[in-house]
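Handout, section B. The chain below has 104 residues.
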Amino acid sequence: MKSSHLALAMGAAIAVALAANPALAADSADWGSSVNEGVSSLTKVIVGVAGGIIGLCIVIYGIIGAVKQRIEFDKIWIYFLSGLLVTVGPLAIVWLIELMQKSS
């Protein structure tokens, strides 16, 4: 599990380095496409894993609420907002990379 976090951090560092200095990319004229492909595949994984975890937490909380016969809506809103941020955040990263591509 720890090696996957290290690989994720290294991939993010390489993506930032390539985005900050397009000359480091293999084809400096089209530097954004390789970064965009890497980021989009990374965001698919993040959204898939985090969305599954948040969905599982909502189901577990629903079961616990049914057993206790009490549901706190504050926690449900936190789960909902977490899911929203997990899905919207990576899309914002891809949008920013596309915006940087158009500006150069």
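Note. Residues 2-103 form one domain. Compare this with the example in section A.
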